[in-house]
Specification:
About 20% of the residues lie in helices and about 40% in strands. About 20% of the residues are buried. The chain is built from one helix and nine strands. Homodimer. Keywords: Apoplast, Secreted.
Length: about 210
């Protein structure tokens, strides 16, 4: 009886010891993994990203551009659309740009005065009527070129545009592609502004300073 009890007691003791050892080993493994994860997080938090490469530019250059802007507000394929107008505005108003009106434009730019001459780009953006006493447009437009040396590049125009003045100047405030960091001006001369047909033709002579 005693011998059997002794054997049984030793067996229980050995089994308990195994459980304890297994538990200690599992804890050790878990703690070790947790510590490694905390260490990895700490290392990641302390890593400093490499500095960005400095911006490099070539020499500043001056470019002169000449093209024609064509706009059509009537017909099957108008290049300018009214997207917002002030409350109470008369839809039959003969004014080309009633105060408070907002237009979206996608006007072709051509090499020559003839609208059928080669298209070199598009003027895309917004035209907002912002003059109460005198018609004046705020022009927010991207002049994007689609052929020639500056294919894929564009100029950004943000300027007042008194459309009923035959000659006027717009500000060029930026650009992309070959016109990166552009600044300059555009001298405009209106050849046609016909409220009946909705046709507008404007000559652009643009001077810009930029880096390629």
């Amino acid at each position: 009886m005693d011998h059997g009890t002794g054997v049984a007691t030793k067996g229980v003791a050995r089994s308990s010891m195994k459980l304890v050892l297994l538990s200690d080993s599992g804890c050790t493994r878990l703690c070790s993994c947790a510590n490694r994860r905390r260490g990895a997080v700490g290392l990641a938090a302390n890593v400093t990203p490499p500095p960005s490469p400095p911006l490099t530019t070539g020499e500043e250059k001056v470019t002169n551009l000449h093209f024609y802007f064509h706009e059509t507000s009537k017909g099957d394929h108008p290049s300018i659309l009214l997207v917002a107008q002030p409350k109470g505005a008369n839809a039959n108003d003969t004014n080309l740009a009633p105060f408070g009106s907002v237009y979206v434009i996608d006007d072709p730019l051509t090499e020559g005065l003839d609208p059928n001459s080669k298209v070199v780009g598009h003027a895309q953006g917004l035209s907002v009527s912002a003059g109460q006493e005198k018609t004046m447009i705020v022009f927010v437009v991207d002049l994007g070129f689609t052929s020639g040396e500056f294919n894929g590049s564009s100029l950004s125009v943000l300027s007042r545009n008194p459309i009923f003045e035959t000659d006027r100047e717009l500000a060029v405030v930026g650009g992309r592609g070959k016109f990166r960091m552009a600044r300059g001006f555009a001298n405009l001369h209106t050849y046609t502004l016909n409220a009946t047909t909705g046709v507008v033709v404007v000559e652009y002579n643009v001077t810009v300073f930029h880096y390629e």
